[in-house]
Amino acid sequence: MFKVTPNPPDTDPSSSKAFDKAADRILDSYLKPKPSKPEAEPGQLFTVVNGVDTETLLANLSENLASANAMVSDLAFDLEGPRRHIALGIQQLIELSAMLANRALDNVEARQST
Q1: Domain hosting residue 102, numbered range
Q2: Is residue 67 part of a domain?
């Protein structure tokens, strides 16, 4: 049995080249993205996003200090002698810094509510 097979469509070589260029551009955009300009120094691992308001920064600082305080406090009670005194000294500095951060946060909230 003979089955009729249609001929492939005629392709214009100029449109084929345009198609190839467009396909290459699309593939390059997905497979070879252009590196975005880094916000931070190349050697800097962590960074804070620009545009974050002071209240949010202070709130996060306060939470980080509370976490550090809990970790050092837990560690201090597992130590003895001079090492325990050093850990408790670090805990006291963290606690004082947390108090300063919380007062600054209170000042920011008070300024925004007026």
Answers
A1: 54-113
A2: yes
